[in-house]
Amino acid sequence: MDLHILDHRLRVTSISKTGLEQYTHPLIKLIFLRNRTRCKFFSLTETPENYTVVLDEEGFKELQPSEHLQVEGSTWLPLNVVSNGNASSSSQSVGVTKIAKSVIAPLAEQHVSVFMLSTYQTDFILVREKDLSVVVESLVEEFNIFREEGGESVPVHSQDACNGLQRNGREVPHATVHPVLIPENQFCVMSLDPDTLPAIATILIDVLFYSNSPREGASIDQDMECIKFFSFSMIDGYVSLVMDTEAQKQFPTDLLFTSSSGELWRMVRIGGQPLGFDECGIVAQISQPLADSDISAYYISTFSFDHALVSTRKEVSFMIHSKSKRQD
Amino acid sequence: MSSGYKPDILWSPHHADRYVICDTELSLYRIGPAGSPETKAGALPLSEQTAATLLAINSDTPYMKCVAWYPKHEPECLLAVGQANGRVVLTSLGQSHNSKCKELVGKEFVPKHARQCNTLAWNPVDSNWLAAGLDKHRADFSVLIWDISSKFSPEAVPAEKVRLSGDVDSGLVVTKPLYELGQNDACLSLCWLPRDHQKLLLAGMHRNLAIFDLRNTSQKTFVNTKAIQGVTVDPHFQDRVASFFEGQVAIWDLRKFEKPVFTLTEQPKPLTKVAWCPTRMGLLATLTRDSNIIRLYDMQHTPMPFGDEVEPTIIERSVQPCSESIISSFAWHPSAQNRMVVVSPNRVMNDFTVFERISLAWSSTTALMWACGRHLYECTEDAGQGAAAAEKDIATKMRERAQSHYGHDTVQVWRNHVLAGGDDPQLRSLWYTLHFMKQYTENVEQKQQSNKQSLIYSGIKNIVKSSSGTTETRRCWSGSDRQTDVPRYHSEERSLALQLCGWISRGPDIDVEPFLKSLEQEGEWERAAAVALFNLDIRRAIQILNKGASAEKGDLNLNVVAMALSGYTDEKNSLWREMCSSLRLQLKKPYLCIMFAFLTSEPGTYDAVLYESRVAVRDRVAFACMFLNDAQLPRYIDKLTYEMKEAGNLEGILLTGLTKDGVDLMESYVDRTGDVQTASFCMLKGSPGEVLKDPRVQCWIENYRNLLDAWRFWHKRAEFDIHRSKLDPSSKPLPQVFVSCNFCGKSISYSCSAIPHQGRGFSQYGVSGSPTKSKVTSCPGCRKPLPRCALCLMNMGTPVSSCPGTGKADEKADLTRDKKLAQFNNWFTWCHNCRHGGHAGHMLSWFRDHSECPVSACTCKCMQLDTTGNLVPSDSV
């Protein structure tokens, strides 16, 4: 297997719900006017708390600093696992499950904090730039690591011999068990021909920026049965959308791509309090048991919480079960 | 969204007159001659000769991303359309509904996860197989190979799916591909490899080019590269593949797939289409975005990569099919040579044929060959009698002259101009000059006046400069007692000059009569009369003219001239004089003209004679030597010399001699004519050593030798070399190759320095005919035996007996030839490869019938290694 360190330098930011109107202009520019910006990596996820925006430095320039914009201090680099064909025989599972053992677990062991971003096309594992040497060292045995620079893939070799566990000087907290929330609504993961983006522009704007309008917004606080979750990303020209079935109804059926089985996903939100960026091992905690049972899952981190998507209620309960077992 | 699509174009693989334009819909056109009854009023003109008629439109398939035309004859107009959601739909154009493809049309091939279909390719042989390249998906494959003949989808279609896709007739939907390749990656382009069409597929994945072998799909050959768009196999060279990325095209050799064989110069704008010409070897056309030109790369002469160092030569050109408009796409015609149709973004189409480069080559003879497209034209000089010899190319002339031994007559030097064809007055003058020079050199040598020798070869210019002791005489008109007032000058040098001009023969005799006689014989009546007149023999002149008039084919006008001449009077103001000086200008014949000019001139002012350019230089110079005084003569000669040098007129050699001046003159002659043959022979002819050393002369000689070699006139070349070494001993090449003894390493031709050099590259040894050099079969240095001939098994040095293998009758017929060859038959010969050999004669007869070495265990194909051995000289011995 190959691990590619992609040629994007990313920032993880959050825009508060109240400050959204200040940022609608740059966001619309980043989503719809691709040829006006040099942004190649853009992801916008709406959660009940805020909007999480992950974007490269070119795109980051568009966002004016203000009290409504929170920025995580470090630069993040996306990793991407490329299986070179021979994985076809193994499990049919998708998403984080596939890389749980090979990437996520070793990083958790080395206490590297990761930010996961699953899309229709692939999974991105974001790591802090300063952790890169640790990442390379811990994964070099398992993967052929390439760093992409200007379109070329350059092989990366671990330069300095490792010296124990405390490389990033971070103390090792014991794995905390976070509360989870399982909303009732079902989600689908879709894609779109970027050329047809203009055709759904108004719907997309409506869903993204006017979701707080009274007709739905009223119910958010009173119960968490259904939570607002909408994710749009455009990475290297590929569009990926995650939305619940309610939102999906607003889009024309013939433009959105999805798998022919039309599968729907249940969400598990991890964290009662905002998780922060320093705790590690959360993804591993979730994905390990899934991998053991070969269950497909998507995983999307946001500024405050993590979100895992699994396909059925049964698997959700499995997840809960395995979590509680750990607790014991 | 549709406005963003640029039209693409596809030729029908089997109908040379049909093509499809695809943008938001598919439009089928038929192309035909413009103005023919078939093309209706609605036809779109494509070029001056052709027009297109719209036959059918199909707008059933929205969101088209790529189209591929079914490669087989039947069903004939079946198209696969790849859509933005990854579905591949079979559709048809302009077909009646009961046609064969009815059951195929409308069939859909749906991937598990929807994403854009980037490319489609039909398997060229197993035409049920259709490969589709899709964008990447996290859990799906990007290359799907569908079998269009599969009847139904094996898996039950879930209701959900039907809702999403909106299919009504799910029986036409196929969801199970035959093969799935390339997980977790995007496929931007693909093509089947014709070399192993059943099994191999080349795909431009996201980061690499990969070759999949369908017999074992888990195995793939791949190479990391950016150039992954538009992979396309050269139809004429199936291991050659072009792929591109942005502005760069990489050419790959599948046998050395590690890196591109080479990349073409990068274009500033991204490429949109790259296509090999199907009708022409190694021609690649490329198109960049928003461009109105198509670039062509001609790899016709690319040597197939033997090593990494081979840098192929590529001829790059560009064509502009429609003058202003931007080209959206183009397509080569499948069968018409170098033809393509281009389409602009607003669907303006243009039929265009790329004009082939013309390459031409001269043969070593005068034939010219040129090639354009598939046509080869040969152009040879018109050998018909109608073409005047003067019109012939100098190379033809030189060839003919070489064959007639031009330049080799060293005794009667003047005859060389006859050998040259005898029709060039300049050559005639040149060879007569050289003849006279040689004659007088010999004459002078007899008199042991060696100091004069250089004077003669230095030409009249130098001779008259050294003139001294000139005497002036006034003679009577012969046959009359009237005193002339014309002074005539005499000196030793002047008479020498006259001799060189050929007016008087050698010796003390200054009688011009023999010269007149010879002119009369040649029928040069006017010239003879003029010479007689200049020798103040007016009666003889009249006699000559009369003779000329009465001769066969004589000009009766000469009698009239004679009459006019007879009326000569030296009365200054006579009517005769007045009329003659004006009317003479109307005379066509230059010699007649100068006769009257002479008679009507004042003494000492003979410009009308001296500058009459139609008169031979030697006659004018002779005249000047007789009638110009010591001050005028050198001035005139200098002026004339300068003129001759400027014009490259060989008559001027008379003035310059074979001096540096002469080389200058010859230089401008060669510049004008290219006749290195005459230049070589002339400069060899007797020119002093320092002139021969002139680099220009050496250059002419070497060029002439090369020319003879190129014509395969090897014998002529050898003759020329012999001729040259006689005249210029310094040109004699030293022996360069010796046969050395195997044992002591010394040359076995111990007497080599004593015997004359026999030829290039061979040392002669052991000639049987010579009693002094009797059989020597051992090395003269160490007395060890010489190697044995592979055929007769005798030691070398033993004379050759009869050639084995040739019959007696043959031998007799070839007796004289054999005698000639007898010496050569004894030479050492050997193959440079296997080192076997023997007597030259034996070897020659062996290789007449064999190509393999005569040594039994040796399989060396000696004869085939000899590249020149199979060439036959074009000149006979």
UniProtKB/TrEMBL annotation, chain A:
InterPro entries for this protein: ACT-like_dom_sf (IPR045865), CASTOR1_ACT-like (IPR049479), CASTOR1_N (IPR040778), CASTOR_ACT_dom (IPR027795), CASTOR_fam (IPR026249), CASTOR_mTORC1 (IPR051719)
GO molecular function: arginine binding; identical protein binding
Subcellular location: Cytoplasm, Cytosol
Any one biological process term the GO annotation gives: negative regulation of TORC1 signaling
Swiss-Prot/TrEMBL keywords: Cytoplasm, Phosphoprotein, Ubl conjugation
Entry keyword annotation includes Membrane: no
Keyword Phosphoprotein on entry: yes
Residue ranges occupied by any CASTOR1 N-terminal domain in the UniProt entry: 9-69
Subunit structure: Forms homodimers and heterodimers with CASTOR2. Interacts with the GATOR2 complex which is composed of MIOS, SEC13, SEH1L, WDR24 and WDR59; the interaction is negatively regulated by arginine. Interacts with TM4SF5; the interaction is positively regulated by leucine and is negatively regulated by arginine.
Function: Functions as an intracellular arginine sensor within the amino acid-sensing branch of the TORC1 signaling pathway. As a homodimer or a heterodimer with CASTOR2, binds and inhibits the GATOR subcomplex GATOR2 and thereby mTORC1. Binding of arginine to CASTOR1 allosterically disrupts the interaction of CASTOR1-containing dimers with GATOR2 which can in turn activate mTORC1 and the TORC1 signaling pathway.
This protein's name: Cytosolic arginine sensor for mTORC1 subunit 1
Organism: Cyprinus carpio carpio
TrEMBL record, chain B:
GO cellular component: lysosomal membrane
InterPro entries xref list: MIOS/Sea4, MIOS_a-sol, WD40/YVTN_repeat-like_dom_sf, WD40_repeat_dom_sf, WD40_rpt, Zn_ribbon_mio
UniProt keywords, alphabetically: Lysosome, Membrane, Metal-binding, Repeat, WD repeat, Zinc, Zinc-finger
Segments forming domain GATOR2 complex protein MIO zinc-ribbon like: 741-863
Highest taxon in the source lineage: Eukaryota
GO BP annotations, alphabetical order: cellular response to amino acid starvation; positive regulation of TORC1 signaling
Domain MIOS-like alpha-solenoid intervals: 398-627
Pfam families found in the cross-reference section: MIOS_a-sol, MIOS_WD40, zinc_ribbon_16
SMART domains membership: WD40
SUPFAM superfamilies for the chain: WD40 repeat-like (SSF50978)
Cell compartments where the protein resides: Lysosome membrane
Entry's Gene Ontology molecular function annotations: zinc ion binding
Family: Belongs to the WD repeat mio family.
Protein name: Missing oocyte, meiosis regulator, homolog (Drosophila)
Organism: Cyprinus carpio carpio
Phylogenetic classification of the source organism: Eukaryota, Metazoa, Chordata, Craniata, Vertebrata
